[in-house]
Amino acid sequence: MRNGRRAAISGTAEWAPQRRWDTPMFGLEAYGKLAREALEDAGMELGEIDGILCTRLGDAPMFAPAAVAEYLGIEANFGEVVDLGGANATGMVWRAAAAIEAGVCDACLCLLPSVPAPPQPGASPRAQNWMLGADAWGAPHGQFDAPYGLINPNSHFAMVAQRYMYEYDLEPETLAKIAVQGRENALLNQKAIFRDQPITIDDVLNSPLVVDPLHLLEIVMPCSGGAGVIVTTLERAQQTGLRPVVVSGFGEHITHKSITYAPSLTQIPIVAAADRAFAMAGVEREAIDVASMYDCYTITVLVTIEDSGFCAKGEGPRFVEEHDLRFSGDWPLNTHGGQLGMGQGGAAGGMSHVVDVVTQLQGRAGPRQVGSAERGYVTGTGGCMSEQVALVLEGA
Amino acid sequence: MMAETPPPILPSPTAATAPFWEAAREHRLVLPLTADGEPYFYPRPFSPGSLAPGTEWVEASGRGVLYSYTVDRRGTAPAFAARAPYVIGIVELEEGPRMTTNIVECAIEDVRIGMAVEAVYEDVDDEVTLVQFRPAQG
């Protein structure tokens, strides 16, 4: 039900991912800084914001939306903590759009700050949370996966790639092409960590195997960063200086946590999410001008292309080989360079794909502008191919 | 200062999972049954997909095939760095369910998806035995 209201993305904010972040900030500080930049981008006032979408923040591990409202000095009609990992960004955008269309609120911050906090006096450096929750008492994966080393997403996604190569015809060179063409886009993105480093297919295949069959250059570089968008009513977005980007279709699908218990290793949750998103938007796959797909690994992109319905099952490798995926090519994908080329700004990584397509639809992509882009497609992938969200976005 | 070495990761059984780990200590592989009598994995106090209470278990053959695997070349989790390279795998058991495991007693270059495997029991200490798999001995 749309209540006669339509939701649209307006302003964006995005910090260049960095391996070492020079200016530590608390989560609430970073959230506020991103909010100011996104509001300035849209020419909107803080007082217009009445929806807060966030993750748990380091300095607000509980009651995060309330903490954000108080810290920013606003009152909200909608607060939501999203816990979908790499699908947080896309998940936030559709939740904000749905809340706006339902008439719950009028303008939402969807922000993902992901920078280190200032060091705590007297405290020893906090251990990295490499157990990803598996060490919680009673957690099934602490008993049945972690003792065997199946913890890091690398291993989960590697087993997807390995199984895909067993069931279908996929050569390592095809996966490498995804990294290479993403990198070519990154060369034109001043915010990309690899903007000065072109790579070849041989470079990818000669980089060290980390988790067979995935090489180092097929795996995102973990960074710090921050990014977000403002979602508001189409009516309000039309009064800004930016082209409104209507959130016209969305879908979400969640199937498992550990890849061992996935219904399928090679048919991924995006199938249902994409079908719902395209049906809701009333848009055909062929009408998409630009796509941005969550690329934590090369394999994620390949399976997401085919399971989003852009080609038949098993035809993903042929699709990748036959198309030019650069911004200037016949099938522009991850025109920001993807996270593989830009660096994964921590929790903000998924938001880079939303910002990528919004930037294209707003005609603000500069040297990597795809031309007249009217319709875009964005995916988010969380956990271990566990949860995926699809968005269809349209310029208004 | 050197980083503290993380402890090895060992299962901490709960009421719902204790029968599995007790059997493993006796070098047996048991699987929980759904209310409809279908083996599933991992154990819960009710059947996934229906939530019907189920407390029956079945003795499994310990045979299966390797469904997928990867070679962790670096120890993607700190506790495993000293073991690298080693094989993380998913075994599809003869009875149907899939389990996470390591493939042991097999050269890394000989590991193949589809290979027949059988359970072998790694007694970590007096309390814990892990169910591992090796190539089927025929």
Describe this structure in words.
The complex is a heterodimer of chains A (396) and B (138). In chain A, 33% of the residues lie in helices and 18% in strands. Chain A has 396 residues and is an alpha/beta fold. Chain A has a single domain (7-117, 219-395), classed as Thiolase/Chalcone synthase (Peroxisomal Thiolase, Chain A, domain 1). In chain A, the strands form two sheets. A nine-stranded mixed β-sheet of chain A has the order 3-2-4-7-1-8-11-10-9, sandwiched between helices. In chain A, strands 5-6 form a two-stranded antiparallel ribbon. In chain A, helix 1 (27-42) crosses helix 2 (64-72), helix 6 crosses helix 11 and helix 10 packs across helix 11 (316-322). The longest helix of chain A has 16 residues, at 27-42. Chain B has 138 residues and is mainly beta. Chain B has one domain (18-135). Chain B contains one helix and seven strands, in the order H-E-E-E-E-E-E-E. Chain B has one helix spanning 18-25; strands at residues 30-32, 57-59, 63-72, 86-93, 98-102, 116-123, 129-135. In chain B, strands 5-4-3-6-7 form a five-stranded antiparallel β-sheet. In chain B, strands 1-2 form a two-stranded antiparallel ribbon. The termini of chain B are far apart. Classes of the chains: A alpha/beta (396), B mainly beta (138). Chain A binds chain B through residues 127, 130-131, 134-135, 137-138, 140, 142-152, 154-155, 158-160, 162-163, 166, 208-214, 258-261, 265, and chain B through 4, 6, 9-14, 17, 21, 41-42, 67-80, 83, 86, 88-90, 98-102, 113-114, 130.
* Number of beta strands of chain A: 11
Cα-to-Cα separation, first versus last residue of chain A: 20 Å
CATH classification, class level of chain A = Alpha Beta
Strand content of chain A: 15-25%
Number of domains of chain A: 1
Under CATH, the homologous superfamily of chain A reads Thiolase/Chalcone synthase
Oligomer: heterodimer
Please give the share of residues in helix of chain A. 25-40%
Structural class of chain B: mainly beta
